[in-house]
Write a structure and sequence with these properties.
It is a single chain. Helices cover 64% and strands 0% of the residues. It is globular, with a radius of gyration of 18 Å. It contains eleven helices and no strands. By secondary structure, it is mostly helical. The protein starts with 6 loop residues before the first helix and ends with a helix. It has one domain: Orthogonal Bundle (Hypothetical protein af1432).
């Protein structure tokens, strides 16, 4: 019998890890959906950087980093942001737990694949990390907008805080997205021109 890896079977379980555990959500979200959305935004930020701002950027690699950015939560669960970032001791300890979970997942792979997946799960530079973090925050902001549009006032504070955090990043690519793309999330299908 061939050696078998559970890595991909575990990845498929991302759909069972719910996000926004402390909030009453009108629209449930899991980390698999979230990771896809973050990958879309990370890819967009990379293309904005290269095509609009003329700076070198591998948008495809950013998308891959975003796909795996929460993979460790398969083993750790999703720790709510207010707890994760409450104080530096908790934040640093949780980062260590996430790193150990990533290493455990990676160790499940055949030796020949481990290096490639390690590069896919961990940004190689602070710059890559900032772009994926901005994409993660964009995903959270879009979630807050969707909840508000659904009549759920529970996300109003999170929306304001997330927008402020994105603006504070002073990342030109994220600022461009906020200015040129975010308003469309307030529109319905007819207003977006998708049904005409």
């Amino acid at each position: 019998m061939a050696d078998e890896t559970g890595f991909f079977a575990l990845l498929s379980r991302m759909r069972y890890i719910s996000r926004w555990g402390l909030m009453r959500s009108s629209i449930p979200e899991n980390i698999q959906e979230h990771s896809h959305e973050v990958a879309v935004y990370a890819h967009a930020l990379g293309l904005i950087r290269s095509e609009i701002f003329g700076k070198e950027c591998d948008a495809g690699h950013l998308a891959v980093l975003a796909l795996y950015h929460d993979a460790s939560e398969i083993l750790t669960g999703d720790l709510p942001t207010p707890i994760k970032y409450h104080d530096p001791v908790i934040r640093d300890a949780y980062k260590d737990v996430e790193k150990m979970a990533e290493e455990k997942l990676n160790a499940m792979l055949p030796e020949q694949l481990r290096g490639a997946y390690a590069r896919a799960m961990r940004p190689a530079s602070e710059d890559e990390e900032r772009l994926v973090k901005a994409a993660d925050k964009l995903s959270a902001l879009v979630k807050c907008i969707a909840e508000r549009k659904a009549g759920n006032r529970e996300f109003l504070s999170a929306e304001a805080q997330t927008r402020a955090a994105l603006e504070a990043m002073a990342l030109p690519e994220a600022d461009w997205f906020l200015e040129h793309c975010l308003g469309a999330f307030e529109k319905d299908l007819d207003e977006l021109g998708a049904m005409g």
